[in-house]
Amino acid sequence: MPATPAWPPKSAPRLFLPGEIGLGRTFGIEGNQANYLARVMRVGEGDAVILCDDVTGEWLSRVTQVDKRRVDLMVERNLKPRESVPDFWLCSALLKKDRFDLLLEKATELGVAAIRPLVTRRCVADKLNLDRARNAVVEAAEQCARTALPTIAEPVSLDALLRGWPDGRTLFFADENGGTPAASAFADSSGPSALLTGPEGGFDDTERAAIRAHPRAVAISLGPRILRGETAAIAGLALWMGIKGDWQD
């Protein structure tokens, strides 16, 4: 006999919704999300849609009606609770829009808990559209089946970041001038941590001295080559997740 198809299918579309989802609730999806379901994914009545709310976890729903501008869903059951992610932050200097978009997407996929943008002297960009950034994070989370969204803070200056740094959190500083090999520094660490990466032009000497003087900062090296800001962030996050994060779970 043929095997029974998995339900819900792995191809079922995924959406994050505002507010809490609960058993038996119904949702009328409109706007861009409705367009995605109806025109891109071409869902029909009875099809499965996976819903997440960043609070209660992941839920199975079924399509009950599809109109031109609206898709109605009914929640059937909880599939799994909201995941627990490692307490690791990314503190990245702002980059050009396309490069920062890439960083937001990959940081979300890699499992970072929080993204804290900062403005430094050599930043090409000095502003961030938070709504746009949050949409990028949500889309990345939907794509990679993540159920816990990373938080995104308003950009702050490097000075403000250092002044307000929490006492119990290690700040790994990706210094292009060198430091402890990242793998060794990560392996020897414990507790909450963060990775600090710079802008297109790097940190200037004054900024570098201020970071290195901070009592929670640990200068690290990400290898012998000079990396772009987004490459340094992605490489550092991947390495930390493999050594201290949840990749071994």
Could you give a short description of this structure?
This protein is α/β, with parallel strands linked by helices. The chain contains 7 helices and 14 strands. Helix 2 (97-110) crosses helix 3 (130-144) and helix 2 (97-110) runs parallel beside helix 7.
What share of residues are in beta strands? 25-35%
Mean pLDDT: 95
Query: How many distinct beta strands?
Result: 14
Cα end-to-end separation: 35 Å
Q: What's the CATH topology label of the largest domain?
A: Alpha/beta knot
Strand arrangement in the largest pleated sheet? 9-7-6-13-11-14-12
Q: What pattern of helices and strands is seen along the backbone?
A: EEHEEEEHEEHEEHEEHEHEH
CATH superfamily of the largest domain: SPOUT methyltransferase, trefoil knot domain
How large is the radius of gyration? Answer: 21 Å
CATH class of the largest domain: Alpha Beta
- Number of separate domains: 2
Helicity range: 25-40%
- Helical segment count: 7
Supply the helix-strand structural class.
alpha/beta
CATH architecture of the largest domain: 3-Layer(aba) Sandwich
How would you describe the shape? Answer: elongated
Largest sheet: 7 strands, parallel
Q: Uncertain segments of ≥5 residues (pLDDT<50)?
A: none
Overview of the structural elements:
It is a single chain. This protein starts with 13 loop residues before the first strand and ends in a 6-residue tail after the last helix. Helices cover 30% and strands 25% of the residues. It has seven helices and 14 strands. The chain has a seven-stranded parallel beta sheet with strand order 9-7-6-13-11-14-12, sandwiched between helices. A hairpin with a 3-residue loop joins strand 4 and strand 5. The chain has helices at 31-40, 97-110, 130-144, 158-163, 182-187, 205-213, 229-243; strands spanning 14-16, 26-30, 48-52, 58-66, 70-80, 88-92, 114-115, 118-119, 151-152, 156-157, 170-174, 180-181, 193-197, 217-221. Helix 2 packs parallel to helix 7. The model has no long low-confidence stretch (mean pLDDT 95). The longest helix has 15 residues, at 130-144. The chain has two domains: 14-80, Ribosomal Protein L25, Chain P, CATH 2.40.240; 88-243, Alpha/beta knot, CATH 3.40.1280.10. It is an alpha/beta fold.
